[in-house]
Amino acid sequence: MRKILLSIILLVTTLSFSQSRGVRIGYIDMNYILDKVPDYAEAKNQLDQKVVKWRQEIEIKKGEITKLKDALQAERSLLTKELIEEREEEIAFEEKELLDYQEKRFGPKGDLIIQKSTLVKPIQDQIFTIIQDIADKKKYDFIFDKSSDLTMLFAAQRHDISDQVIRALTRAEKREQLSKKQLKEQDAKEALEDMQDENPDLAERQRILDERKAAREKLMAEKKAQRDSLVAQRKRAAEEKRKKTLEEREAKKNGTVIENDTKETEIKESDKKDNNDLESGSKELSVEEKRKQIEEERKKKLEERKKALEEKRKKILEEREAAKKAKEEEKESE
């Protein structure tokens, strides 16, 4: 009856307000808010453990009383009237003690109610203060508690300000640990959150923007990873090419020295052979003709050697130029 009367009063009041101006109504879910408060959750867990212990003690006491009753029933025919009355008085005393203990722990003024009140009251006071601030700031005419005795037949989600209350609770804790710069950033963030609360469409647009931003950042990160991988591959290739060029240059350098020595040996042996041929063929050809022939052959060999050396020098220069270019590309890539 009280709930119906309260609902009628609320309806009449709302209608009278709506005739003059738009009425703004919000609601909270106190149970939902309390579950989100870390200190309350921890204290509630400790209280729940105590309740479990109290219930176990009650069950043990009930078991003892049941055993007394069973023993009396089994031995009643063997006991005198006085002993039966004594046993019954003992059972009655134990039952009274059990009822007193239950009243002490779970009665209207018991430990459970008192400790719950002690646990919840400071947080509720803080929540009520925050609700008043929100109501003054955002011009709410009514704010109800969904978890209270007031029956709410329907409540649109957009009128639920429970999350706003939770944010206000956490903001107060965070502000104590923030610097001035962080406080400024936090104020901007809170202003944006408040705007989103006022305008759900703005919140949806912000969500879409955040998703697009996250997608762009992910794409940029992937491109950067690909670019870094490509640079690393080019760097490894340039390093391998430079190393190979140095090894070839060193090998060519050692091979050139050996080849020159070999050429000089061949020339000496050729000269020696030519001299021997000159001496052995002196009977068939004149000295002048033999000398001319030897000079032509020597000139021919010198031209061939000169050509071979020129080609080798040209090849070495090309390899040096290639190595220099690879080194420059390596510096540019770094």
UniProtKB/TrEMBL annotation:
Location of the region described as Disordered in the Swiss-Prot/TrEMBL record: 177-205, 218-314
Basic and acidic residues biased stretches: 177-192, 218-227, 236-253, 260-314
Keyword annotations from UniProtKB, A to Z: Coiled coil, Signal
Domain of life: Bacteria
Keyword Chaperone appears in the UniProt entry: no
Coiled coil residues, start to end: 44-104
InterPro entries listed in its UniProt record: Chaperone_Skp, Skp_dom_sf
UniProt key word Coiled coil: yes
Family according to the record: Belongs to the Skp family.
Name of the featured protein: Membrane protein
